[in-house]
Design goal:
alpha+beta, 8 helices, 7 strands, 66% helix
Length: 393
């Protein structure tokens, strides 16, 4: 009996092993089929990605070959036309001033002629009352004089009308030139945004617009001096002015100087960021240990962040900052560098491309108080409070 039980158990165990082996083979085959299906799907996706990549590469090549050179050529052409029109506007302004002087002289002549005509009328009345002898001859002379005066008055009126027509025409020309300047300024703004986004419009030949600049001060007495020092600082930092514009006054009273915008080329935006960071670190190192909290304990500039700077760069920047400090309110921007003089502080910052575009969109560049508030929100490694440094002798 025991033998029979053992035999039955062996048969059962063998059957179970056969069943388990069959199940394992079925699962293995199903797993292999699933792997094959996934490989096939991956192969199809790779083919689609390769096709899309080739299309994108072709589109980018077409844009670089056709679109960007055409935009640059158009910008250069418009810049040349704007310069020519600006020269014509300057000539027209001089002509307008001359014509205004002539108009004033003609008005004075008309007043003088009217007074002379009244005087002659009085003389004619007196002559007729005093004597009748030779009255006809005197009257003829007086009538002749009066007719000549009338002719002169009519001629003066025609000249005045012609002068007014010419003035209106020149004003229309100025309006057209102003609109063209706004259009060109918009294209230059697009070029700056393209450069900030990392897609230069031309090669590194110094002719592309790679940065924008701004300058405004509340003090008219510092306007000419600050403009000269600002442009020296631009040149010292290996930049050249491609184009400049001037807008209305920077406050609502209309008493402050014009707001100046600059379009600059010659250095890449990333090089300017490293260069100005190095200059501000060097300037901030002159602060006393217990002052200028935003500039203390700042880590040193990493190697290779920017090109090696010469002493003239630092001297030019320090001259600009000290001149800004003399103002009761001013803003100055050179690419990523932003300097703001409020009534109480002198703040400097090196902005990233995204931060520059954000400030551009919010239109706070021309308001020292608003710009100072925005700069104080930046991370500490981007902001320098140089009030104590500029106030030191």
């Amino acid at each position: 009996m025991t033998t029979v039980i053992l035999v039955v158990m062996c048969v059962v165990v063998g059957a179970l092993e056969l069943y388990a082996g069959r199940q394992s083979r079925d699962q293995a085959r199903a797993f292999v089929r699933r792997i094959d299906e996934l490989n096939e799907q991956v192969t199809k996706q790779n083919s689609v990605l390769v096709t899309v990549g080739e299309q994108l590469t072709a589109e980018l090549a077409k844009v670089k070959r056709d679109v960007l050179p055409a935009l640059d050529s158009r910008l250069r052409h418009n810049s040349g036309q704007v310069e020519e029109l600006a020269g014509l506007v300057h000539q027209a302004d001089g002509f307008l001033r001359t014509q205004a002087g002539r108009l004033h002289d003609l008005e004075q002549q008309r007043i003088t002629l009217a007074a002379l005509r009244r005087k002659l009328s009085e003389v004619e009345t007196s002559v007729r009352a005093v004597t009748r002898d030779g009255a006809g001859e005197v009257e003829d002379k007086v009538d002749t004089a009066l007719e000549r005066l009338s002719d002169l008055e009519r001629g003066g009126g025609e000249i005045l009308e012609l002068q007014r027509t010419l003035t209106r025409t020149l004003e229309d020309v100025e309006d057209v030139v102003a609109e063209l300047l706004q259009y060109t300024e918009g294209e230059l703004d697009d070029a700056v945004a393209t450069a900030l986004a990392g897609r230069p419009r031309t090669g590194d030949d110094g002719t592309a617009v790679t940065a924008t600049g701004r300058l405004w001060t509340r003090d008219g007495r510092l306007d000419d001096i600050l403009t000269d020092i600002y442009e020296r600082c631009v040149r010292a930092n290996r930049l050249n002015v491609r184009f400049r514009t001037a807008e209305g006054p920077g406050d609502t009273t209309g008493d402050s100087p014009e707001r100046r915008r600059y379009f600059l080329g010659g250095m890449r935006a990333e090089d300017l960021t490293g260069a100005f960071t190095a200059l501000l670190i060097s300037t901030g190192a002159d602060l006393p240990h217990n002052g200028g909290g935003l500039a203390r304990d700042r880590p040193p500039l990493p190697p290779g962040l920017g090109p090696v700077r010469g002493p003239e760069d630092e001297a030019a920047l320090k001259a600009l900052l000290r001149t800004l400090h003399e103002s009761s309110g001013a803003v100055a921007q050179i690419g990523p560098l932003m300097a703001v003089r409020t009534r109480d502080e002198l703040l400097c910052a090196v902005l990233s491309a995204g931060q520059s575009l954000e400030l551009e969109s919010d239109e706070v560049f021309w308001d020292p108080a608003a710009a100072g508030d925005r700069l104080r929100r930046l991370p500490s490694h981007q902001l320098w409070d140089l009030t104590g440094w500029a106030a030191a002798p």
